[in-house]
Structure formats: structure tokens, C-alpha cells
Write a structure and sequence with these properties.
alpha+beta, Immunoglobulin-like, 8-stranded antiparallel beta sheet, 20% helix
């Protein structure tokens, strides 16, 4: 602990607020010999310089006199209690700095109730040290030696450097680190307007919004602005100069001598040294060289590489070992401090938090470096044991306690294995799951001792709960709980964990025994995490880039399936599971086995399957009901197309994109999302904002208020496929809601068009946003004129003015990023044609229909925070009226790379239909070969009549005719579609029933059906049924229920459950149906920790407990012999039984049900996607085609 003693007080009887003593602004906790440290003091203005006295075991190498702020810089030379005294007109103060030897780092201490040091196992030493190489097998090392290869660039550079130079690449964790010069969430005015201290926001023009700064190897510890070429900071920090020049940075942030501030007037700070420290020193120059040197040693046999690796490993270990004690040196308290005045000090009131404290840098970048350090140590372990020169060098770095290689190994294992493992146990390095967990597993494998099983036990059965993770961390369709590449992390690192556990099992088979220690690959959900990325593939080239993922590229995409996973990922999945579709994806469009596959049998099987079945897995239209995507697919080869609507919500890296949509066609994404933000300053106001997506905002309803939506209808038979999804805001009636219906219509095998109808209900104002791809745009059919400057937010609102809050709604700030708009009123359909930038002859043509009282703006927009990858045109429609307002916005979309196939779009008059909030809509689509009439109603059941004589009671209908004669008719969720005497009829529009029982392991539900179940399709066509070339319908007949296979069942209940699953098998049974569904129905599971009346508490956290994911699900015991519907989850761990449905359920009843029924020593609970009492709905559809 530190001690602080006031020697004397000088009472200042001056202006109000003057201090009566010196104020400590920054001081260390513990200091080790060799470290530099800072003491910063505050005093009344005009007090002058302070005199300083200190003992000889520290040296003061600089000071910074700023009158009110006094900073002093020291280097510790020897251990000992170190009283440092300050005296002057502002007061007198002595601070005793504990300078302790490195040998005492292992001694038990305490800070704010936290046991220190944070070394696993806390309060004890290892039972036995690492004894040799345990991560790499002899075969793997021999393969590396045989392959040989050129050492990495850093390894070669280090070989020419002195040990002292390698050691000094980083200054150690006493100096802050950050990866961002601008971090708006921690800065005054959210850092809006903060650019370069000299040239301002010009630094971002045409450059990265995150990392525009550059490094010059001729100027170490300097950061250069690429625009004005100024080097920052102005002082030579690495030479011991802490404050010279106009832009000094003492390591804790630059404070320009002439303050630069935003609107509030609070000055900004620039963390130049912290930025260099993390990015250039630690991430680029230091940590990569560790593994490069280790591999160079193995591949070349040159012990000089092992020696340099050992030097860097010792520096790495020392740095992390320091942070096992000095919590004030961990990344987060330093990072958040450098952006704030008065001196950028670490945030003291957060020193007492080990969870999410981070390590040297943020965990998503540091945990892989910890793993690499462990792997490198494993490779050079034997060489270090024989390197007396290395022992002598480390001893000379203020480590007299290191006299032998064994001493050095103890030191390395403390700083690498023990510190890093404890980071994970403390949840200090949680960021992108499960990177922290794999890091801890790597430490267990690296130690290679029986005590390693304690770490495995922690990971599987402790709070990380990996034995339940495939259910609790992944959505029911196998999707990760984040977006894009972050979900690849979840797959790659879970596969890595499975591999590490299997290696530990082979190493210690007597210890790695079930039921305590399980195999992750034995869970049927393991294959689903790979299946998901195939199932979300679009057109064999792209994927749905939602949330923080991807970029708005419309370039022709290379063939690739399963993005963001790679062929190597699928090859490993095939090796684990033997699933043939994974071998297809591994084979890839290039027709080759990934080179990293060393098992010849696995490689041979991948080649066989790839040659026999091809690289592309055939995918049907699908509903990914965990991730929340409904995808309509058609076409073949290069003419594949896919239309999708999103109704899910991610847990992390999400955008406000409820019910956004996308279209993949022509080998590309012609209707792209904006993807990952170009910078953080404006991300919340632009890229993450609802208005940067495709959808409508209800003024006064937060975009984040929408829970996970649900698919209401899904019908996937060609030539017209239809889906409708909906999300309803919780609250009092009438509830605000939005829903989107999408239609994908094949013109022929070559081309298609798409239709979207968005229905919006609630509030008094609706704002609809649609943007095209990057490139020139032409808008016709709308009477537009220049607004006269400003933005869509208003003619007086400048571009990027995030203080603009139109209508008092913060979510409308996106309108301030739409500059120099054209404006007008909607008076009928208008068209917008977008030429894809750099794609000659490729267009996206759209027709828009909105209520005639809508106002329309168009604006060409670019990314606001840095180099923009697009210049795309937005069409924004806004209308207002009496609450609750109801609006429909329709968009007809045609991608084209030749002559247009759609010649005209006409909205037809409709009479009748249901007495609904929304009117039924009919569209006539003219092509050169036929005319389509599409009828889209809010719901089926009521007959409407369409201009031209067509009538239907379906939710969706297509009538295709040539020369006045019907050639195709399609009916969804209705019983009749006719024009005159021609048409089709169904006996039932849908099936409904109630789940009576379920078998979760078999994925079956037994359903009691409502009413008659036999389905009949009747076609009345000229010439009779002999003229039909195709007739399809869904339903049950005398032949059985096979026509339901491949269709989707929608499951719901009053408790809020909404689920959709594909029917894999269907059997008619007495009184109803026996359905086999696609996905394992487990949505959460864990050990029972506590039981109370009407509630259980789980020992595992239910990560997905957001946005209504578990509402109305079914809680069951281990063998599903007892189950209850739940209302929801309290605190992410406590399922609450729905007493409105189940009545009161006593703790005694629950205790008798929730026992250990499978003999694994754990009484478990499971939440299922559905259960007894839930209602099922199967929409029916039919289509006929005639000659």
C-alpha cells in the first residue's frame, strides 16, 4: 500500500476556492527497480515552483512546471521505502513511494479488498512447473524443421539488434496505451470536430476514420499527421524530454500549449505516446517478433533466434507480472484517463476492479498475443534451459533473484502462464467471446501438468460455462451472438478450444474423464455453428453484411461460400464432424484441399467429395430464426439471386437495423448495407443509425425498443416467393409495430425482380429511408427542387451537426448527414435508377410508392468520419398525421446488367379485403413476355377485388398472364384466386393446432390439429387440367403429410414465444400430426443453483437474454419429463415460470423435478424453443402453371 503524509499546510487566504494544501493528481501504487514513474500535483495559481527532495534510490530526470500543475518524473534504481517531499508556496507534502524488488512480487498483498498479486493460483505457487514442450508435438516440430523457410522480418531484425534494444522496444505498462487518437465516448463534446491539432479535420479527408496517423521509422516515438506532415509530440519523449515544444506529451497525453476545444470549451488531449506505445511498439515491433523468433529457431536450428525470443519473452513476462500487482497499470484505467484533464492520470476509483480491466492492450488483440507468447515459450523451452547468457542478461535488468535457468523459468511462467490465466479467471480480458477462454485453455496446455485440469474445470464448469456454451452463447440456428467477422471469431475460437481440450485429453487421459470433463464436439450443436455460415450464404459469392461487418461494395464478388469462414475453417469442421457439405465448402471454387490440412485421409476425403459433389452447397430459401433472417433464393450459376429481410437483434456489434433488407444478384450486392463504421466519432449517428439502413422510423419510438421480430408467413415456391416479418414494441395498446413483406419474382432463369412493402404503425410521424448503391443516380416522376443548402434535417442544419435533433428525437440525427438535398412532395410513384459505380452497364432500378401526403428528399451521401467508400443517393420520405399513424411504403427493385426486363409498374385499385389498419395493395408489373399482377394483403382471409377483375382472399397472390390468358397462378395463405372462371382454390388457407407433447432429443412435436386436415387444390383453367405443366400445394391429403416436408411451421404462445422451424418430416397420426423439426430446440441450459417458488436460478449465464429471446420459452428438467412455460429471465440467470399460464408452482414441486436424471452429477435445467401448449401455424400455398 502507498502512504501519504502531509508535512505542513499553508493556508491561502486569497480568492474563494483557493486550496489549503497540495493536491495529488497522480501517483504510483508500487514501483519496481528500472521503472519510471510520475507524480503530479495541483496547487493554487501563482504558487510557483516546488522544491523536491528524494532519496538516492530514485532519480528525478525531468519536471514540468505549469504553475497550477506540477509534474515530476522519476526512475527507480533500487528497492526501498522512498519518501519524496515537495514544498513551496502552495503547501508541503511527502509521498512515500514503495519501491519493491521483483522478488517480492509473489508476496501476498491487498488493495481495496482485492488479494494481490493476481497470479493463478492466487495465494499459492504452482504445484509443479512446466517441464518441457507440451503444446507442439514432436511430429509438428519435425514438420516445421523439414519445411524450413525464411525467418520473419522481425526475427531477422532482432538477430542484428542487441539484447538491450530488443528489451527496450516497449517501455513497460507504467506508460499508458491506446489504439485510438480519438475516443468520443471518453472525451469532451464526444470528440466531434477533433482532428489534428494543427490541420484539424483535414487529416481524415480521404483517409481512415480510425487510423489516419502514420509512423516514420526515422522518428521513433513520433506520430505524423499525413495531411500537414507535423510530427507529434513536440518533445523527444524517448530521450527523457517530457514537455518541450508546443505539443508536449509526457506519456499521459498531449496538452497543446494553446488549448484546442470543442463547443463546450473543455480542451481536448491527444495521446500520441500512448498511441505509439500500443500500435507501433507493442503490436507491430514487439509481440509479433516473439513468435517469429521462436519459429525461426525451430526452422533453422539457430539458437540465436531462441535467445532473442527469450529476451522478449522475459520483457513480456515482466510487463504482465507487473500488472498482477499494479492494477493502475492495466490498460483500461490508463486509456480512459489519457483523454481527460487535468493531467491524464489513470482513473483511481476504478483501480479496485479486476473484471474488464484489460491487460497491456485491449483483450481482442492481447489474448492472441498471450497465446503466441505461450506457444513461442513452448518452442524455445529447451533452448532457454541451456542459455546462461540469457539468464545473465535478465538478471542485469534489476532481477538479482534470477540466478539459474530454473529461476528464469519460474519468472517466465509467472508472467505468462500464471498472470494470463488469472486474467481469464478474473474476466479481466473479456471482449470478443471466446478469445479469453481459449487463451486460458492455451495456458493450461502450455503448463502441461495435472494442475492444468483446474483451469479446464474452471472453463467447462466454472462461470465461463463452456459445457453449456454451444447453447447459451450461440443462437438456435448456430449463429453467433454478434455480427460478421466477429461471429467468425466465435466459430474459430470455439473450434480452437475443442482442439486444445482434445490435446489435453490425449496428454492426461486418466484425468480428462466425463462427466466432469466433456468433449465439445460431442454436442450436436457443434456442427450448427459451421452450418450457419453456409446457410446464410448468398448466391455462392456474398453474405448478408449486417451490423459491424463488411463494406458497401458492389463489385463483382469472387465465388466463395460460407463467408466469413474460410475453406480452412470448413476443412477443420469436416475433420471434426465428417459432414460432407463441409468438405464441399473446404474444396472451394478453386478445387483444392487447404494446405494446412496435414492428415492425408482427411485431405483425400475432401478431394473425393469435392470432385463428386462440387464446391457449392445447394441452398433452399430459408429462415434462420435464431439470427433472424428470412432468405428467398432462386436462379442458378452466375444468375443466382437472393432477397432477405432481417428481424433479429445481435447482442454485440449491432446496428439499429430492424427489418432492413438486402438483395444479392448479378454476382454482387447491388443493395448493400454500409457495413463497419469508417470511424467511431459519427458511428452512432450514421452507420449504426436506423437511417443508414432500409426502413422507417416512428418519431418518439427508440429504434432500440424493437424486440426480436418473427416471421409471420414464409412461402418459397417459384416463380414468386414471399415472406413477411414483424416486430412489435412492448407496451400499452395500441402498440407501435413495423413489418416488412418481401417478394422475389422470377422473370425467367436469367432475371428476377423484387418487391418490398413496409407497414408502419404508431406515433404521429414516420420517416422512411432507402439508399441505392454507390454511383450516379437519376430520380424521375417526382417534382423536386433544390432545398437551398443545409441537410435533410433542415436548411439551416449543417452537415455532420450532431447537435441537430429534428422533432426532438435523437434518432433523426441521421438526417443531418444528408447534405444539399432536393426536396418535393410525393404525388404518385417515382423511380430511381442507380448506376453501380465502376460497374459499366450494371444498374439497380427502383420504383417507390408512398402515401401522397409524404414529403420527399433525395441526397447524395458519403461517410462522415473519414475516407468514404461510397457516394450513394438516399431517398427519404416523411409524413405526419394523427396518432396512431399508419403508413405503407412499397419498393419494386430490378437489378439489371442489360436491357431492362420490367417495362412498367402500376399500382392498381383494390376494393374490399379485411377491415384492417392497412389497405390491400395490388401491383401490375409489365414485361416484354408477360404481365404480373401481385396482390399483397396485411393478412389473408378476406376477399378483395382488384382493378381488372382479379379477386383473392390470400395474403399474397401472383397472377401471370400472356395475351390475356393466365399462365401461372400463385396463392399464399388463402383459399381462392380467380379472374372470371379461371383460377385456383384451396380447401384450407392454413393449418393451426396445439403442441400436446414433444421429444427434444428427437426434435419432434405431436400436434393436435384444429378442424379438418385434408387439403385439396382445385384448378379451373381453360382446356382443363391437361393443360397444366405444374401444380404444387402444401397440406395433408389421403396420401399423408409429405407435402408439408420442407415447409415452415410458426410456433407461438401468449407469453411472447415466436419461433419458426423447417419441417424435416411429417406424419399423420390419430388426432393430428407428428412433426420433426430442423434445429435442436435447446436455447439455454445450465446447472440448477437455487430453487424457489415459481423460479430456478442457473449456475450458467444466459447470454442471449435480450430483446425477448427467451420470452414464452419452455423450461424443462434434464429428461423433459416435466416442463413449464416461462415469462422471461431475470438477471440473465433466473427463469420465471409464467404463472398466468401455469398457475403457482411451488419450490417443492420444482425440487422433485429438477434432479440429476442423467447421472453426470449435475442437476440441470434446459430452456426449449417450444413446448406443450404452444400454438402452431402452417400457412398453406398453392401454384399452378399452364402451357
Amino acid at each position: 500500500m502507498y502512504r501519504m503524509t502531509a508535512i505542513a499546510l499553508l493556508i491561502i487566504l486569497a480568492a474563494p476556492g483557493a486550496w489549503a494544501e497540495l493536491q495529488i493528481l497522480d501517483e504510483p501504487l508500487w514501483v519496481f527497480p528500472g521503472q519510471i514513474f510520475r507524480i503530479a500535483l495541483g496547487q493554487p495559481a501563482g504558487s510557483g515552483a516546488l522544491a523536491v527532495e528524494h532519496p538516492a534510490n530514485v532519480e528525478m530526470f525531468d519536471r514540468w512546471d505549469q504553475d497550477e500543475r506540477q509534474r515530476f518524473y522519476f526512475r527507480a534504481l533500487e528497492p526501498g521505502e522512498t519518501p519524496i517531499s515537495f514544498a513551496g508556496a502552495g503547501g508541503e507534502l511527502t509521498i512515500t513511494v514503495p519501491v519493491i524488488p521483483w522478488s517480492s512480487v509473489y508476496e501476498a498483498r491487498e488493495y481495496s479488498g482485492i488479494a494481490l498479486p493476481r497470479l493463478w493460483p492466487v495465494g499459492a505457487d504452482l504445484d509443479a512447473p512446466k517441464f518441457g514442450r507440451t503444446i507442439y508435438s514432436d511430429a509438428e516440430v519435425e514438420r516445421m524443421r523439414t519445411e524450413g523457410g525464411e525467418p520473419g522480418a522481425l526475427a531477422q531484425r532482432w538477430a542484428a539488434m542487441s539484447d538491450e534494444q530488443v528489451w527496450s522496444i516497449i517501455p513497460g505498462p507504467a506508460i499508458p496505451r491506446t489504439c485510438l487518437m480519438v475516443l468520443g465516448s471518453r472525451e469532451p463534446d464526444a470528440a466531434v470536430g477533433k482532428g489534428c491539432p494543427v490541420c484539424g479535420m483535414a487529416i481524415y479527408e480521404g483517409r481512415s476514420g480510425f487510423y489516419p496517423w502514420v509512423f516514420d521509422p526515422e522518428h521513433p516515438w513520433k506520430v505524423k499527421c499525413p495531411e500537414c506532415q507535423t510530427l507529434f509530440p513536440s518533445n523527444d519523449w524517448h530521450e527523457g524530454d517530457m514537455h518541450s515544444g508546443p505539443f508536449p506529451d509526457d506519456g499521459w497525453g498531449c496538452e497543446p500549449l494553446e488549448p484546442i476545444a470543442g463547443k463546450s470549451g473543455e480542451p481536448w488531449r491527444w495521446p500520441f505516446i500512448a498511441y505509439y506505445h500500443q500500435t507501433e511498439a507493442y503490436m507491430r515491433a514487439f509481440t509479433p517478433g516473439i513468435m517469429q523468433s521462436a519459429e525461426a529457431y525451430v526452422r533453422t536450428g539457430d539458437a540465436a533466434y531462441a535467445h532473442k525470443c527469450g529476451v522478449a519473452l522475459a520483457r513480456f513476462a515482466q510487463s504482465h507480472l507487473d500488472m498482477s500487482l499494479n492494477l493502475n497499470h492495466r490498460k483500461l484505467v490508463n486509456r480512459d484517463g489519457v483523454y481527460r484533464g487535468p493531467v491524464g492520470a489513470p482513473i483511481r476509483d476504478r483501480f479496485n476492479r479486476v473484471g474488464s480491466s484489460f491487460s497491456y492492450i485491449q483483450p481482442n488483440w492481447d489474448t492472441p498475443r498471450m497465446e503466441e507468447a505461450m506457444r513461442a515459450y513452448d518452442l524455445v523451452f529447451d533452448a532457454i534451459s541451456e542459455d546462461e547468457e540469457l539468464v545473465a542478461f535478465v538478471r542485469a535488468q534489476y532481477h538479482p533473484e534470477i540466478e539459474t535457468p530454473a529461476d528464469l523459468h519460474r519468472f517466465l511462467q509467472a508472467g505468462i502462464i500464471r498472470t494470463c490465466a488469472q486474467y481469464g479467471i478474473d474476466n479481466a480480458t473479456a471482449r470478443n467471446w471466446p478469445m479469453q477462454e481459449r487463451m486460458v485453455a492455451t495456458m493450461a496446455l502450455g503448463l502441461g501438468q495435472p494442475q492444468s485440469m483446474e483451469l479446464v474445470d474452471h472453463l467447462l464448469n466454472g462461470w465461463p460455462g463452456l459445457r453449456y456454451s454451444l447453447t447459451n452463447q450461440y443462437l438456435k440456428d448456430g449463429g453467433g451472438h454478434e455480427t460478421g467477422g466477429y461471429n467468425r471469431i466465435q466459430v474459430r475460437y470455439m473450434a480452437g478450444l475443442a482442439d486444445i481440450f482434445s490435446r489435453i485429453e490425449r496428454m492426461m487421459p486418466d484425468l480428462y474423464q466425463p462427466p466432469k470433463f466433456i468433449s465439445l464436439t460431442g454436442d450436436p450443436k457443434f456442427r450448427q455453428i459451421f452450418d450457419f455460415h453456409l446457410n446464410t450464404s448468398l448466391i455462392g459469392r456474398v453474405t448478408d453484411e449486417t451490423g459491424d461487418a463488411g463494406a458497401p461494395s458492389t463489385d463483382l464478388a469472387s465465388p466463395r461460400q460460407g463467408k466469413p469462414l474460410t475453406q480452412q475453417d470448413f476443412a477443420e469442421a469436416f475433420a471434426w464432424t465428417g459432414v460432407e457439405r463441409f468438405a464441399q465448402a473446404a474444396w472451394g471454387p478453386g478445387g483444392a484441399v487447404p494446405g494446412a490440412i496435414s492428415d492425408p485421409q482427411v485431405a483425400a476425403e475432401i478431394e473425393r467429395i469435392g470432385r463428386e459433389q462440387g464446391w457449392q452447397v445447394d441452398l433452399e430459401s430459408d429462415v434462420l430464426d435464431g439470427y433472424g433472417h428470412a432468405i428467398l433464393r432462386s436462379g442458378e450459376g452466375d444468375r443466382q439471386r437472393a432477397l432477405w429481410v432481417r428481424y433479429g437483434v445481435a447482442v454485440q456489434h449491432l446496428h439499429n437495423d430492424m427489418l432492413t433488407m438486402g438483395l444479392a444478384a448479378l454476382g454482387r450486392n447491388p443493395l448493400p448495407e454500409l457495413g463497419y463504421p469508417v470511424g467511431w466519432t459519427y458511428a452512432g449517428a450514421w452507420e449504426k443509425n436506423w437511417g443508414a439502413h432500409y426502413g422507417t422510423h416512428i418519431t418518439g419510438v427508440s429504434p432500440g425498443a424493437y424486440p426480436i421480430g418473427s416471421v409471420q408467413t414464409f412461402a418459397s415456391d417459384a416463380p414468386a416467393q414471399y415472406a413477411r416479418a414483424r416486430s412489435e414494441v412492448p407496451g400499452d395498446e395500441p402498440r407501435a409495430f413495423r413489418e416488412r413483406a418481401i417478394v422475389l419474382v422470377d422473370i425467367d432463369a436469367h432475371d428476377a425482380y423484387a418487391v418490398s412493402i413496409e407497414r408502419v404503425f404508431g406515433g404521429e410521424e414516420h420517416t422512411h429511408s432507402f439508399h441505392g448503391p454507390s454511383g450516379p443516380a437519376t430520380v424521375t416522376g417526382a417534382n423536386l427542387h433544390p432545398q437551398g443548402g443545409g441537410t435533410v434535417a433542415g436548411p439551416d442544419v449543417p452537415w455532420r451537426d450532431i447537435s441537430a435533433r429534428p422533432s426532438g428525437d435523437a434518432a433523426l440525427v441521421c438526417l443531418a448527414f444528408m447534405p444539399d438535398p432536393m426536396v418535393g412532395e410525393v404525388s404518385g410513384p417515382f423511380e430511381a435508377s442507380f448506376e453501380l459505380e465502376g460497374q459499366e452497364g450494371v444498374f439497380l432500378h427502383t420504383t417507390h410508392l408512398a402515401p401522397d401526403d409524404s414529403r420527399l428528399w433525395t441526397s447524395a451521401c458519403t461517410a462522415p468520419g473519414g475516407r468514404s467508400p461510397y457516394r450513394a443517393t438516399w431517398c427519404v420520405m416523411q409524413r405526419s398525421g394523427e396518432a396512431p399513424l399508419a403508413s405503407q411504403f412499397a419498393t419494386i427493385i430490378e437489378p439489371s446488367d442489360g436491357e431492362r426486363r420490367v417495362l412498367s409498374v402500376t399500382e392498381l385499385a383494390v376494393e374490399g379485403g379485411g377491415e384492417d389498419t392497412f389497405a390491400s395493395m395490388a401491383l401490375r408489373i409489365e414485361t416484354a413476355g408477360f404481365t404480373d399482377t401481385l396482390v399483397i394483403q396485411p393478412s389473408g382471409g378476406a376477399t378483395c377485388s382488384v382493378e381488372g377483375g382479379l379477386s383473392t382472399d390470400g395474403e399474397f397472390a401472383l397472377w401471370r398472364e400472356r395475351d390475356g390468358a393466365m399462365i401461372t397462378a400463385k396463392l399464399v395463405r388463402g383459399t381462392a384466386l380467380h379472374r372470371g372462371e379461371t383460377g385456383i382454390s384451396l380447401a384450407r388457407a392454413e393449418y393451426t393446432g396445439t403442441i400436446e407433447s414433444f421429444d427434444p432429443q428427437a426434435r419432434t412435436i405431436r400436434v393436435r390439429m384444429d378442424g379438418a386436415v385434408e387439403q385439396r387444390l382445385t384448378a379451373e383453367v381453360p382446356g382443363g387440367e391437361g393443360t397444366l405443366v405444374d401444380a404444387q400445394f402444401s397440406g395433408m391429403s389421403d396420401a399423408g403429410a409429405s407435402a408439408l416436408v420442407g415447409r415452415f411451421v410458426h410456433i407461438s404462445n401468449e407469453g411472447g414465444n415466436r419461433a419458426t422451424q423447417r419441417i424435416m418430416a411429417a406424419e399423420a397420426v390419430e388426432g393430428g400430426l407428428l412433426l420433426t423439426l430442423q434445429y435442436d430446440p435447446r436455447v439455454a441450459e445450465g446447472p440448477v443453483e437455487e430453487i424457489a417458488d415459481g423460479a430456478l436460478t442457473s449456475g450458467a449465464t444466459f447470454k442471449l437474454n435480450r430483446y425477448g429471446y427467451y420470452d414464452g420459452k419452455t423450461l424443462a428438467n434434464e429428461d423433459a419429463s416435466a416442463s413449464w412455460r416461462i415469462a422471461g429471465i431475470e438477471g440473465n440467470v433466473k427463469p420465471l415460470i409464467d404463472t398466468a399460464h401455469e398457475g403457482e408452482v411451488s419450490a417443492e414441486v420444482l425440487r422433485s423435478a429438477f434432479t440429476d436424471r442423467d447421472g453426470d452429477g449435475i442437476a440441470g435445467m434446459v430452456l426449449y424453443d417450444y413446448g406443450p401448449g404452444d400454438t402452431i401455424t402452417i400457412p398453406c400455398q398453392a401454384s399452378v402453371s399452364r402451357r
